[in-house]
Amino acid sequence: MNGWRPVLELDSARVAYVRRASPETLALRERIRAGEIGDVRLCYMNASQDFRKCRPDYRETYYAREATGGGAILDSASHFIALLLWLFGEPAEVAAMADRLVFEGVECEDTCLITVRFRNRALAQISINQFQKPNTITVEMIAALGNLMQRDDALHFANDDSGRWTTTDFRAGLTAGEFHEQRFRRQADFVLDALAGKPDPLTTLQEAALNLRVALAAKGSARTKTMMQIPPEI
Known about the structure:
With 234 residues, the protein is an alpha+beta fold. It has one domain (10-228): Dihydrodipicolinate Reductase, domain 2. It has helices spanning 23-33, 51-54, 73-88, 176-195, 205-224; strands spanning 14-15, 40-48, 91-99, 111-118, 123-129, 136-143, 146-151, 154-158, 166-169, 203-204, 228-229. It has a nine-stranded mixed sheet. The chain has a two-stranded antiparallel sheet with strand order 1-10. Helix 3 crosses helix 5 (205-224). The radius of gyration is 18 Å and the shape is globular. The N and C termini lie far apart (40 Å). The model is unreliable at 1-5 (pLDDT under 50).
């Protein structure tokens, strides 16, 4: 083929969990790593919206069936598991409850509550429903010196009991839709960085494989009503 050769290698392959390319998420991680609030011990995530508005054909897609990877855990929750693995490292155990509370015409859950304990002893909870009307994305990191909370497109900080939060807004006059589109442009730029061997924040294949282990453990926990262990990677 005229000397053409593939340039993509496994080390530069990335999985498209777009929120790891978003400026407010990058700022959240940088401030945690800088020790601004101390060691994060607890995390609450709520990622909920009306999925039917985004994907009105959901009954005819992968989402409708267990065998094709449908449902709230493998679809939406995996994006937030990707964030947790990036922030906390290796998970140790997973417990979950999940059910189809509202949707009709699908096999899979539209709601899940997932709790993860990490090997550094941090605890995290992911709450997702896919039928509520407001589009809600909240990630709150809790530590002894303060809290950092990512809500929608802003990052909030509090380190006392006054009820006041210091807010950094990353949207800069863009609509929510325009800001979300910008995430995908940033993600594409980071993919080019990965291909060039430069540092990037995107999900690697190894991280994605661990993500899948956590998500499948959550589904197993919901099905068997037991805590699922995540053996350490060899």
